[in-house]
Amino acid sequence: MSRPIRVFINGFGRIGRSLFRQIMTTPAGAGFEIAGVNDIAPLETCAYLLRYDSVYGPFPQTIEAGQSWIQAHETRLPFHNEPDLRTLDLGDVDIVLECTGRAKDRTTAEAALAAGADRVLISGPSPAADATVVLGANEDRLGATRIVSNASCTTNAIAPLLRALDGAFGIARAHVTTVHCYTGSQPTVDQPGPNLERSRAAAVSMVPTTTSAMDQVTQVLPGFRDRLSVTAVRVPAISVSAVDAVLQLKNPPVGDLHGAMAESLADRTLFGLTQDPCVSTDFRGRTESLVLALPETRVTPGGQLRMLGWYDNEWGFSARMLDMATRMAPLLP
To answer: Is residue 99 annotated as a catalytic residue, yes or no?
Structure first.
């Protein structure tokens, strides 16, 4: 498109605010224009949480708020407190970035279209989406789809990795453990919940738990349905997660393993590589879907590949949402 892509952010939580930050303060946002923001939380609270962030630090521009607007530096944007998007006029919006986590049914997912928007991009798994698309895995499915799920942060880390390595070496079977930082779905102190392990205090224990990544990965890569397993452990870290993958390769690389990894994971938008002995906080703010830790990568004589990759589950996922929105823009009427 020759003009900026007009997006509307619905839901101003962790991903909504990360998207706002990237559009307003990074080169990746140059092709976007924010038409407005909507959240059911009080405007003053949303402005405060944008101004001060425990993970990414203070917003690098002045943040102000009025009765129905929020302003970053000199850019003033409409701010709404509507629980139902259908009450708004979104006729000038190209893509609604649906970040509420509530678009699980068709009526909710279609609300932005009913309000006049052309497309909807959902920041998470959604059975109501027309398609679940992960860049580097199944972007060929995008087509002219109007409601797209960007899957989960972990799916964006795993699926492109499996597709790339399967193409390069062939994967007979794979097991992936996600080592995920705690999220808002976990309590800060022990309290009753539907899942016993997830009812425990998030910041003091490693918590074995379920993950939607298995279903999501096999949805975008159906060929892995009978050769992949995925498990998860939540850990006491506020940001940045990891995937610990063990893959049985059909044609393991011979010779320079690190060079073979760099060649097979050549897309530097999706994959980063590091030779340094790093820890999770070193990857805060990275935009790649996965950064492979080469010192943790090795192949056994039997062809079993073990690898560790890091991903910023908020910032990197938000970067993929902007990439996906850019892909969707040429399909607009």
So the answer is: no
